[in-house]
Design goal:
InterPro entries: AB_hydrolase_fold, ABHD18. It holds the Pfam family ABHD18. Strand 6, helix 5 and strand 7 form a beta-alpha-beta unit. This protein has two domains: about 230 residues, Alpha/Beta hydrolase fold, catalytic domain (Rossmann fold, 3-Layer(aba) Sandwich), CATH 3.40.50; about 55 residues, no CATH class. The protein is an alpha/beta fold. It contains twelve helices and nine strands. A seven-stranded mixed sheet has the order 1-2-3-5-4-6-7, with helices on both faces. The protein has a two-stranded parallel sheet with strand order 8-9.
Length: about 300
């Protein structure tokens, strides 16, 4: 599974690519400082050539307490959920952790796994942090689990409101009611017939059913199944947080993650996929603190 997603990886022995962010100070007070940095994406050069110029560089925000040396601090990299396109929400989550000497690094990218591992490597080797972690909400939580699994050293790993696979929200959760299955069926039929147009009757001619289309999507999205990834170096420092009434992520999916990673912990907050996050920020912060304490 890991080799399919990351052909050059050798599981947890895959070394992160070194990066050197260029930093500028956004603001600072007597007790804290916010910097923003830019670094060239760690994607393969062949992929970079296929990307638009604005995607060649990754952006990161770095909120740190002042007057504390890095070896006495921790830092958590916060990954983006679906539709989270700025630093603001994740900085609000991490800001109150400054009083616990926990810095927050927010990565503004979607190709996050390799870049997040590189930032963690930078935090350890260049910045001198003693404890590190990664967290994310929803899709960002899936990515956080992948990063925690693949990172070569023990880190705190905190998937928030995250499924064990993208199959779950799209084929089991509420997204299945919003997916244009007929369009996907026509697309699949057109590919089968080796034609370029998506004729309305193509699906009928080839006999492709909606259920077959769902099965194809399941097959593609199964590449994101975190339960097939290696167990993190320190599973005791893994805390999953699920929501009791999450229409996107059913309870069984969260439990699949804990089952795959013995020693990890599952916590629950009340509410749905969105409301639980806005209503229970303190619970997510507590999970971050506790996971770092287990390193």
């Amino acid at each position: 599974m890991v080799k399919q997603l990351f052909p050059e990886a050798r599981c947890q022995n895959w070394p992160p690519t070194a990066v050197q962010p260029m930093w500028k100070t956004v603001w600072e007070t007597n007790s804290s400082c916010l910097r923003e940095g830019v670094f060239r994406t760690t994607c393969d050069e062949r992929l970079i050539d296929a990307l638009p110029p604005e995607s060649h560089n990754a952006r990161v925000a770095f909120l740190t307490p002042k007057n504390v040396t890095p070896e006495k601090m921790s830092c958590v990299v916060h990954l983006a959920g679906t539709g989270d396109h700025t630093f603001e929400r994740r900085l609000r989550l991490g800001g109150p952790l400054l009083k616990n000497n926990i810095a927050t690094m927010v990565l503004e990218r979607k190709a996050t796994i390799d870049e997040a591992r590189s930032l963690l490597y930078w935090l350890q080797t260049e910045a001198g942090y003693s404890k590190m972690g990664v967290c994310g909400l929803s899709m960002g939580g899936v990515h956080a689990a992948m990063v925690g699994s693949l990172h070569p050293t023990p880190i705190a790993t905190l998937p928030f409101l995250a499924p064990h696979s993208a199959v779950v929200p799209f084929c089991e959760g509420v997204y299945k009611y919003a997916t244009a299955w007929d369009v996907l069926r026509e697309d699949a039929a057109a590919l089968t017939q080796d034609v370029t147009s998506l004729a309305e009757d193509a699906a009928q001619k080839t006999g492709i059913t909606i259920e077959q289309v769902r099965d194809r999507l399941r097959s593609v999205l199964s590449l994101t199944d975190v339960t097939r990834f290696p167990v993190p170096k320190n599973p005791q420092a893994v805390i999953f947080v699920g929501a009791t009434d999450d229409g996107y992520i059913p309870r069984h999916s969260v439990m699949e993650l804990q089952k795959a990673w013995p020693g990890s912990e599952v916590r629950w907050v009340t509410g749905g996929h969105v409301s639980s996050f806005f209503l229970h920020n303190d619970a997510f912060r507590k999970a971050i603190i506790d996971a770092l304490d287990r390193l």
